[in-house]
Structures are given as structure tokens and as C-alpha cells.
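Input record (one chain):
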Amino acid sequence: VVNPHNMVAAAVGFNAWQTESCFMHVAFESPHCLTRALLRASFEYPFVKSAKSAVYALVDKHNEECLRLVRKLGYRDVFQTVDSVMFEMLRGECRWIKEQEHGQVVSTIHA
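The corresponding structure, as predicted from the sequence alone:
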């Protein structure tokens, strides 16, 4: 996402690719940069295009704002270290790759 000054305002990256999972990393100048379109594309890439079953995120356990945001996106806590919280989102739990059709939630994943 680019801001009005043609500067990068939000970016999403992935690493630690495994057979069934990967880690997602997000950087942004404000939460307003995280548009629905960006979030859908960000989760579509690992779950739909790369056919992963899980996406993980690692957050500093003292960063309350980021912890709230990650939980609000749909991740759930799976592990805590002395300084970090590890989060997991499973493909079937990801609301960002689902769409509404006639009032019903329909997955965008096509077999």
C-alpha cells in the first residue's frame, strides 16, 4: 500500500516456508493502511495460492496494540516465550479468504 506521498505505507512479507505453513510479517505506518483488500490479498497468498494449512505470526508480548490487532484479525495464541507470543491461523478459520454469497459465507478456496 502506498500513501498519498508515494511512500510505502504498508507491506506484508512471508518467510519460514514449510510444507504446510509459513510465517507472516506486516509493517505499516498506521492501522488505517490495513485495508480489507490488503488483508484479503495477504491471507489469500499463503492459503489459496500457496495451499498452506496454517500461517503463524510472532509478536513482542509487551506490544499490547499489536497483540490486540493480531487477535482481531483472527489469529489465536498458541505459544508464549519469555518475550514473544506465537499466533496461528488455520485456513478453515480465516475469514479473510471467505466471501458472502446470498447471505451465506462461502470459501474462496476452490478445489
